[in-house]
């Protein structure tokens, strides 16, 4: 049997059927002429076919150009978005929406809270307030030891705090070594003394702390059995790019400290919030903390001594700190 070979317009290498079979068209034209049609009719048919092919070509070209245009627009928008995000991420702040995307990609799970009637809710809120209003900043500590497991539970409670983009940027350094606490105290007191002496004249904040019998000395740093040093990240890798997230991480870590203070009060321990002022970098280097961290606060932690005295401070009534709308 004779094997017929068809000449394909294109697509031989792909194995697909061609759009135009030239051999079939040639056979059709021969049969068209053999049926007695004039050469003019043949030319008309060829012309019509040419017009159809031209229209098909033009439509295909138009669609191709439209696809190219859409691709360029999408590419341009992507580049523009990257530039906008880069601009917004410059400086101390971070784009909140970018961090929020890290949260919404997480798997969602059901959230259930126990149903409590109004009377119990009111009672619980009053009990918690009565407990928290006893909180004071304590600068005199007992030598009584605190179980490390209690410290761990307190820090786990602080770790439940919300944070921007769920970054959880905090690190709690727990110092129990007397020698390390002594070195930290020396660094802190040297910085406090410089600030206290240099601003002693005419500084309103010095007058305020003098009324609280506060000086540059920090004996409670070494007296307390534990010293918590609260750190937070300064930079974070977001979308394969290192970004400065100092502002939001500082806020998130401050919220965690608030929860930690409530937890400390709940278990009967005491602390005093201590600012590192300008001593933070020196303390970080002494503890060999990474450059990506900054010290926010120091919290000496322990049981209050039996003879401790605290200022008789008056807190603002709720009417002065609340506005109803």
Descriptive report:
50% of the residues lie in helices and 10% in strands. The strands form two sheets. Strands 1-2-6-5 form a four-stranded antiparallel beta sheet, sandwiched between helices. It has helices at 22-34, 39-88, 96-104, 118-132, 148-158, 178-198, 204-211, 220-223, 246-266, 280-286, 318-321; strands at residues 170-175, 226-233, 235-237, 242-244, 270-271, 293-302. The protein is α+β, with helices and mostly antiparallel strands and 325 residues long. α5 (148-158) packs across α9 (246-266). It has a domain at 138-199 and 212-304: NADH Oxidase. One of its GO terms (cellular component) is plasma membrane.
- Distance between the ends: 96 Å
Overall SS class:
alpha+beta
User: Can you tell me the CATH class of one domain?
Assistant: Alpha Beta
Order of strands across the main sheet: 1-2-6-5
Strand residue content: 5-15%
The H-and-E topology, N to C, reads as HHHHHEHHHEEEHEHEH
Second-tier CATH architecture of one domain:
3-Layer(aba) Sandwich
List the uncertain runs. 1-15, 81-98
Q: Rg to the nearest angstrom?
A: 38 Å
Instruction: Based on Cα principal axes, name the global outline.
Output: elongated
Q: Enumerate how many helices there are, as a single number.
A: 11
- The CATH superfamily of one domain appears as NADH Oxidase
Task: Report the helical percentage.
Answer: 40-55%
Largest sheet: 4 strands, antiparallel
Summarize model confidence as the mean pLDDT: 80
Keywords: Flavoprotein, FMN, Membrane, Oxidoreductase, Transmembrane, Transmembrane helix
InterPro entries: Nitroreductase, Nitroreductase-like, Nitroreductase/BluB
Organism: Caenorhabditis nigoni
Cofactor: FMN
């Amino acid at each position: 049997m004779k094997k017929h070979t068809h000449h394909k317009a294109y697509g031989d290498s792909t194995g697909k059927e061609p759009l135009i079979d030239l051999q079939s068209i040639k056979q059709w034209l021969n049969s068209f002429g053999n049926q007695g049609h004039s050469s003019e009719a043949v030319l008309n048919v060829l012309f019509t076919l040419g017009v159809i092919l031209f229209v098909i070509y033009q439509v295909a070209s138009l669609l191709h150009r439209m696809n190219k245009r859409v691709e360029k627009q999408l590419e341009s928008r992507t580049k523009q978005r990257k530039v906008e995000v880069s601009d917004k991420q410059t400086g101390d702040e971070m784009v909140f929406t970018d961090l929020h995307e890290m949260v919404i990609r997480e798997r969602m799970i059901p959230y259930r809270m126990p149903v409590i009637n109004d009377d119990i809710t009111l009672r619980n809120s009053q009990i918690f307030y009565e407990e928290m209003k006893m909180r004071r900043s304590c600068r005199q500590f007992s030598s009584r030891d605190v179980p490390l497991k209690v410290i761990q539970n307190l820090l786990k409670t602080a770790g439940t705090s919300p944070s921007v983009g769920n970054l959880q940027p905090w690190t709690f350094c727990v110092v129990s070594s007397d020698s390390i606490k002594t070195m930290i105290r020396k660094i802190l007191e040297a910085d406090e003394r410089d600030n206290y002496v240099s601003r002693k004249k005419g500084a309103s904040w010095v007058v305020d702390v003098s009324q609280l019998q506060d000086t540059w000395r920090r004996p409670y740093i070494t007296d307390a059995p534990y010293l918590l040093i609260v750190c937070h990240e300064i930079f974070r890798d977001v979308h394969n790019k290192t970004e400065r997230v100092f502002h939001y991480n500082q806020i998130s870590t401050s919220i965690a400290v608030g929860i930690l203070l409530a937890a400390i009060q709940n278990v009967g321990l005491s602390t005093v919030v201590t600012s590192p002022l300008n001593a933070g970098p020196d303390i970080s280097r002494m503890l060999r903390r990474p450059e990506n961290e900054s010290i926010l606060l120091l919290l000496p932690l322990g049981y209050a001594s039996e003879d401790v005295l605290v200022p008789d401070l008056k807190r603002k009534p709720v009417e002065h700190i609340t506005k109803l709308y």
